Automatic annotation (TrEMBL):
This is Uncharacterized protein. Residues 71-107 are annotated as: Disordered. Residues 96-107 have a biased composition (Gly residues). It comes from the Eukaryota.
Amino acid sequence: PCWERLQTSHFKQGHWLIAKSDHGYCDGAQHQRRDRYRESPFDTAIFILQTPQAVLTWPVTSTLEQEIREAMADAHPTPAAQARRRKEGRGMADADGGGGVYRGKKR
């Protein structure tokens, strides 16, 4: 229901889907981690909702879409960070070995 409401909102001015392989994200615990960015485990949908006044002030353009895609692509972890995460076995994402089993940090 929520997805449908976003899709049909009269405030919707833009909608883009960013594949998980095309972006990463900033880890919420980045201040406690060695690595700031993580691989995204899922695709991300972006909805731009605007009032009529906002449409005039901040138009949604293909340039805006490209800027957002580039900014999200910049959030990829380095290959070294990806290797450390897999080695440490943090979390339950595909990048951590999957299977839903937390292996914990090796001692």
